[in-house]
TrEMBL record, chains A, B:
<dbReference type="Pfam" id="PF04864">
    <property type="entry name" value="Alliinase_C"/>
</dbReference>
<feature type="region of interest" description="Disordered">
    <location>
        <begin position="58"/>
        <end position="82"/>
    </location>
</feature>
<keyword id="KW-0732">Signal</keyword>
<dbReference type="GO" id="GO:0006520">
    <property type="term" value="P:amino acid metabolic process"/>
</dbReference>
<dbReference type="InterPro" id="IPR015422">
    <property type="entry name" value="PyrdxlP-dep_Trfase_small"/>
</dbReference>
<dbReference type="GO" id="GO:0016846">
    <property type="term" value="F:carbon-sulfur lyase activity"/>
</dbReference>
<dbReference type="GO" id="GO:0008483">
    <property type="term" value="F:transaminase activity"/>
</dbReference>
<dbReference type="InterPro" id="IPR037029">
    <property type="entry name" value="Alliinase_N_sf"/>
</dbReference>
<protein>
    <submittedName>
        <fullName>Tryptophan aminotransferase-related protein 2-like</fullName>
    </submittedName>
</protein>
<dbReference type="InterPro" id="IPR006948">
    <property type="entry name" value="Alliinase_C"/>
</dbReference>
<dbReference type="InterPro" id="IPR015424">
    <property type="entry name" value="PyrdxlP-dep_Trfase"/>
</dbReference>
<keyword id="KW-0663">Pyridoxal phosphate</keyword>
<dbReference type="InterPro" id="IPR050478">
    <property type="entry name" value="Ethylene_sulfur-biosynth"/>
</dbReference>
<dbReference type="InterPro" id="IPR015421">
    <property type="entry name" value="PyrdxlP-dep_Trfase_major"/>
</dbReference>
<feature type="domain" description="Alliinase C-terminal">
    <location>
        <begin position="85"/>
        <end position="441"/>
    </location>
</feature>
<feature type="signal peptide">
    <location>
        <begin position="1"/>
        <end position="19"/>
    </location>
</feature>
<comment type="subunit">
    <text>Homodimer.</text>
</comment>
Length: 457, 457
């Protein structure tokens, strides 16, 4: 007991008690949503306050019961923040809950003798595109109204990552004297420079921030809208001729941003990972105006992987069918977009409350816009939080890591390490542990400082 | 009638009748196998001799009933060879028959909420490898005895094509002064040079035939065994130090070649396309000894496609399970390997008979070897026929194309256009039309020459 009082002074206990209060206030805010989750999480949380071991075994049991591993995230907390919460990737596991309630409707059955050939539609331009999937892509865009599909070729890819490379290959002449410059306005998607330069291609080369690009000659400008990492709606920023625009519209869906109008660009990239949440499928698609560009993209996918998994395309077709049906005949959770938009709205409210509470960070502010699909006006609620640490903290990623929250540093996005990107798409329990921990970081830090002052090893 | 006699002289008719006889002899040879197919093909063939239109509509009906389009091949013939038979690709559709008889045992069911995360096994070196699939890979190699799996890392890829690029990336230092040379003994797989050089990488560069390679410095030698296109068992041919060997063992399965012993190389590539016939899955795997090489390969797949379709991996696991079970408890068709080995043996007999009949071509000859898996001795019966046109024909691909048989010219494999590569893995009906047509080409050519002589336009 003497030891106890030695470590925890009354002042320390007061700070700890304050932290608990903040946590309880936050809990009241999201209790309703938490209960909806799986009818078990609230109990888990309560247990977590009393004993760590039981929660650990509960979490392990949950892992076993789950169809997929809980990715790189952890589901355990309430032990004073010892457990690592990994929000580095945009792993869209928050969508599992929607798909669970669709039941058999979204189940795919593939007999052993089906889809054995390399070819899906031998006579068509994209010979490895499953016609059924192509049909659902068009129906989905028509339903949501987020992209023009008329007079476009569809090219399917092993995720939009492969299509990004297919686009670079298609837009860079084989006989050019020097590699074509590839630019995007900072903060840009951290994978763009890595993918572009990983093979030291003689066809194309990463040339950094589009805003400071001033090299002569042709170039490729990537316009990611809404932007990864910061969520803002974007347009081309390079103010000179000779550029070809590539629009990465992975996040142009009504759960993340108001759908202002149907995008009508020459090259548009989409992915199921961020629209339906099926990242494990590795399926993306491009809508391409120019037939020669589309042909070269097909050629790239042929050289790179001889087409795209038919199984995943068939599953994607089924999943899009269910999404479209959910828009026409919404269930108790609403359409997929209602479900996800509602969840994103709640999560952003919680995140902003936690950030206010902590006082150590800032978040982007967005203006509301009218959404033609959801028939209401709302502010963007992006798939990533682009968090900035307040001065004097320089290394936001390192600071959060010391609090067992794994994020991606701004330096990978071409900007200052004061920023970090945080996934907003993880499972409910992880997200809630994250906001809870974030809200108390200031207090925790104080406790830690006090503890250190108190001479604890 | 005057017109009829004008076109067809008695001599012409004699030649035509001879051609029909050869065709009927061949039919007797494969009638049994043909009947097994689906109990309908023989009738199709008979119809084909009387009316083209009915066969065309039959073929279209077959297409509709089929799970997948009949790839780039056609199923119609008996109309004098007007229909195009495409054997350019190694599309392994001959395996459909095996998988049809496995029924529900090989069916995969994936609910909508399953496998949504990017991650399959977050903690493991290859974080996107489904553990269930990894387990079946090891069991399969142990069952067949064709590769050592102990002390190896498994890296999964979107087909072995992606793994080939992953290997090049892994073996080429990022800071090298010049690109690493990549060689393979001609005739080499036609895609190697195209894939290696398509992005003009600064890391590696195609350097052609390994036999004539004499550049100083480190290099990568691809050893494809049995070889694509010619089917011979191979070993390294470059006789100097500084080389790293990559073994492409896509065809090292008992249906193609006797399994002499378990391959025990540093880097070995495999694919389901040529082992089970599931090309549409786009799934390959590498067995890699060195942890650093394995790590870099994983990095490449991460950059290239952020992992590999989980759906296809789960389906591949199921399919391998059924293959292993078929070895332990063979059905009426035997194990998958019995089925395919039997089919390849029959096909090679038919092909050799047709080649003898035509007198225009030659084929590789193979010595028999003892197979530890099938417990008998047999000569290789490769997945491709490496056909050589006799003098004075220079352009074998062009010659066969003029007979509506699409093959791949030897020039793409680094050798003379007197050679062509022909897939032996197409569906039964296409293969039989092909050998029938090949056997009568000499006669057809004579007819054509006669006809031309007779003044037909």
């Amino acid at each position: 007991m003497a030891m106890f009082f030695n470590i925890f002074s009354l002042k320390n206990l007061l700070v700890l008690s304050l932290a608990l209060n903040v946590s309880l206030v936050l809990r009241v805010l999201y209790e309703k949503d938490f209960e909806v989750n799986n009818g078990r999480s609230v109990d888990n949380q309560k247990d977590a306050l009393t004993t760590t071991d039981s929660v650990l075994s509960e979490a392990r049991a949950t892992q076993r019961a789950r169809p997929s591993m809980p990715s790189s995230s952890s589901t355990v907390d309430g032990d004073g923040g010892d457990t690592i919460i990994n929000l580095d990737h945009g792993d869209p596991t928050m969508y599992e809950r929607f798909w669970q309630q669709t039941g058999d409707k979204s189940t795919i059955v593939i007999p052993g003798w089906q889809s054995m050939s390399y070819f899906s539609d031998a006579g068509s331009l994209c010979w490895f595109l499953e016609p059924e999937f192509a049909k659902e892509i068009i129906r989905l865009h028509k339903t949501v109204g987020n992209a023009v599909t008329e007079d476009r070729y569809i090219v399917v890819g092993t995720g939009s990552t492969q299509l990004y490379q297919a686009v670079l290959y298609a837009l860079s002449p084989q006989d050019a004297v020097e590699p074509r410059s590839v630019v995007s306005a900072a903060p840009y998607y951290s994978s763009y420079p890595l993918i572009t330069d990983c093979l030291k291609s003689g066809l194309y080369k990463w040339a950094g921030d589009a805003r400071s690009f001033n090299k002569e000659g042709p170039f490729i400008e990537l316009v990611t809208s809404p932007n990864n990492p910061d969520g803002y709606v974007r347009q081309s920023v390079v103010n000179k001729s000779g550029g070809i625009l590539v629009h990465d519209l992975a996040y142009y869906w009504p759960q993340y941003t108001p759908i202002a109008s149907a995008a009508n660009h020459d090259i548009m990239l989409f992915t199921v990972s961020k629209s339906t949440g099926h990242a494990g499928m590795r399926i993306g698609w491009a809508l391409v105006k120019d037939v020669e560009v589309a042909k070269k993209m097909v050629k790239f996918v042929e050289l790179n992987t001889i087409g795209v998994s038919k199984d995943s395309q068939l599953r994607a077709a089924k999943v899009l069918q269910v999404v479209i049906h959910s828009c026409q005949y919404p269930t108790s959770l609403g359409s997929l977009f209602d479900f996800a938009a509602h969840l994103m709205e709640e999560r952003w409210k919680l995140l902003r409350a936690a950030v206010r509470q902590s006082g150590l960070f800032t978040l982007p502010e967005f203006s509301p816009g009218s959404c033609s699909f959801l028939n209401r006006s709302f502010a963007p609620q992006p798939a990533f939080a682009w968090l900035k640490c307040q001065e004097p903290m320089e290394d936001c990623e390192g600071f959060l890591r010391s609090n067992n929250i794994i994020t991606r540093s701004g330096k990978h996005f071409g900007v200052s390490p004061q920023f970090v990107r945080i996934s907003m798409l993880d499972r409910d329990e992880n997200f809630h542990i994250f906001v809870e921990r974030l809200s108390t970081i200031h207090l925790r830090q104080s406790v830690q400082v006090e503890e250190t002052d108190g001479g604890v090893e």
